[in-house]
Amino acid sequence: MSLLHANDVHKNFGGLAALKNVDLIVESRQFHGLIGPNGSGKSTLLKCIAGAEIADKGSIVFQDQDITAASAAWRARQRMSLKFQITSVFNQLSVYDNVLLSLQADESMWRLMCSRSRRRLHPRVMHILDQFNLATRADDLAGELSHGQQQWLEIALALARDPKLLLLDEPTAGMSPEERRVTGELLKPIKDHCSLLIVEHDLDFIKDMSDVITVLGQGQVLDHGTPEKIENSERVQEVYVTRV
Q: According to CATH, what is the number of the domain 1-79+198-244?
């Protein structure tokens, strides 16, 4: 069975059809790229999957459960995690405390008041920071990190609660070519335990990262398949590449 199945999804905003008849399947331990011109519906689809928006029609099934109308909080408890394009780390807290707070989200008030979880979670916090090249910045304020490092920290926060599916909306936006390369290297190891649905404009990055790519145009699926298939698709070249 697929991990995620969005079937015949529609989403309207007033008279604008943002999504029409969209089908998308993400398999377990799969990196799935989602591309398309600006305004093609990529971020809207990601929000419908995460619960930030509710689809007007169709169904979204995650781990064999219909989550079409479920809240974003409920989906997160089912181990789905979303990172939006705009970074939202706590700038006035240390890098360490950003990760600690993410891990403490499900802790009881008693444990938090007694500070029992901080000592217990310390090894895990440092492991996560080390995974994202941030261990040496643990005591620095998150606001002092570079843009690329803040993006890595937010991805680390999204992964801290061990999701089955990670949704990323343009994680390399504003990064240098070297930061984009490092981001790809940091993400690849999560495939052992987590699927990824990623929206990106960097075509080279998405081709290198993805097992499968879905292309949206004007709210509909234009094509779907391996990176090689999408790269050679005449329809994608006509409708997508010329409009990016």
A: 3.40.50.300
